Amino acid sequence: YTIAHMLEQKYLSGSTAVKIARSVETAASVGHAQPGDVLPSVRALASHLGLSPATVAAAYRILQERGITVANGRQGTKIRPSAPGAPLASPQLPRGTRNLADGNPDRALLPDIQRVTRKLTVKKRLYGEEFQDRALVTLARRQFRAYGVPASAIAIGSGALDGIERVLRERLRAGDRVLVEDPSFSGVLDLLASLGLIAVPVDVDDEGMLPDALAKAIRTTAPAIIVTPRAQNPTGAAFSKRRALRLRTILRGRPDLLVIEDDHAGPIAGVPYVTLVERGRARWAVVRSVSKFFGPDLRVSVMAGDTETIAAVERRQSTGMRWVSHILQEVVVALWSDRKVRQQLTVAERTYTSQRQSLIRALAKHGIEAHGKSGLNVWISVAEESAVVQAMLQRGWAVKAGERYRIASAPAIRVTIATLTDARKFAADLAEIVSSRGRAAA
Fold first, then answer.
1. In terms of DSSP H, where are the helices of 295-422?
2. Which of 124, 227, 306, 309 is deepest in the core (most CB within 10 A)?
3. How far apart are CA 212 and CA 208, in angstroms?
4. pTM given for the model
């Protein structure tokens, strides 16, 4: 369907911002609007509907907040590239392409699970036994408390997003607003949309959410906030102690706000963990997944939180998946307790830090600004995402367009540095592409 056809068939309609947004969302859900379709300009749709541009602009803001569309600068407002919650197919890349788009850790830097499990004696467990491995709970509690997280109640889940989803399902209702970083992890945006929750963007810089932006955002009725203290995906932002202090001060003005922290990178983030959770906060949860540093296929996460939130998560878990396999829990304990594995994690952290910093320095020599204070990704602002992605692919580099991560922030590309060992070549290719198009990366 073309946009002209959608207008002709009145798939885009309404007399208020809410009704216009609803018509676009319906068109997207039934296939009249396809992922990647560019909506009419604000003025064009306002003229077609006989409304003021301000009304259409408000509708487009609603669509961005709900994760249905993404602003793409001069290229207009697009339907998000994938439906919220839909499984994402991995694209087939040309032979010889360097894949810097997938967000994966380096396979060579993951620990040797087989070596560790050879020494593991797994107890045969039956229904009715404890859901949690006591050793894992003890280990998790000790780690959380070392970072200043008041961890008394602990739950075990199946990955960072699984933990976040369980908290959101138990504590929020469809239609609630959730404060999120902008840009934000696409998985979080898709999760919110699938739950009928509205993402409220909060601007970030290299140190995380901007205090002024957060102070403004918490004046809304949003009952929850999701933050990434380090290795923020896609920008690599990480809280400094000074920034965290300012944010905690602001959050004290909303003692009812549910604070959810996502520490998915853990020991390979490259910077210390700084939490926003203060002792005495009524509603909070901190989720740490092991997938980025032990391997994506090891689907285990540990969660600390207030007593009521953890109890609600465990009640729902007991009526659904029941428990995370004790075999997996015991493997995680064995890995975390193994001296050689801890040494391997140190090597991985140093390697990722070196490769991240090498890319940022190489880009800076070409006058290209990039962001990546921590984690596995570097965020590079560009004028036209799709054009740069395609041009880099022709040169043998697969990078990720930033549109799936953005709500109202500017266009960019995300580069995963886990296997990037020739940063100077990458930077030179990107600089040549940017220069040839006559547009500077900002």
1. 307-318, 326-337, 339-365, 385-394
2. 227
3. 12
4. 0.81
**pLDDT, tens only, 100-154:** 999 999 999 999 999 999 888 888 888 877 888 899 999 999 999 999 999 889 9
State the amino acid at position 111 in one-letter form. P
- What is the secondary structure of 117-177 as a DSSP string? HHT--PPP--TTS-SS-HHHHHHHHHHHHHTT----EEEEESSHHHHHHHHHHHH--TT-E
Task: Identify the three-state secondary structure at position 312.
Answer: helix
Distance CA 137, CA 155 (A): 8
The pLDDT tens digits for 224-262 are 999 999 999 999 999 999 999 999 999 999 999 999 999
Q: Residue 36 corresponds to which amino acid?
A: G
Q: How far is the CA of 187 from the CAs of 61, 85, 165, 349, in angstroms?
A: 20, 8, 11, 24
The per-residue DSSP string of 47-77 comes to HHHT--HHHHHHHHHHHHHTTSEEE-GGG-E
Pairwise CA distance, residues 241 & 225, whole Å: 19
Residues 62/69, Cβ–Cβ less than 8 Å? no
How many C-alpha atoms does 214 have within 13 Å on its Cβ side? 26
Residue closest to 382 by CA, chosen among 434, 435, 436: 434
Of 285, 357, 85, residue with least CA distance to 194: 85
Q: Which two tokens stand for residue 222?
A: 């949003």
Are 371 and 181 in contact by the 8 Å Cβ rule? The answer is no
- The residue written with tokens 């015991």 in the block is 330
Compute the distance between CA of residue 160 and CA of residue 62 in angstroms, rounded to an integer. Answer: 27
The first and second tokens of residue 69, run together, are 């569309």
| Strand pairing report for 208-209 and 224-227 | unpaired
C-alpha 322/C-alpha 315 separation (Å) is 9
**CA dihedral sign, ordered 348, 349, 354, 359:** positive
CA distances for 94 relative to 53, 91, 435, angstroms: 44, 10, 25
SS3 of residue 212 by DSSP: helix
User: Of 63, 64, 75, whose CA–CA distance to 389 is shortest?
Assistant: 75
- Burial (CB < 10 A; 0-12, 13-18, 19+), residue 147, is middle
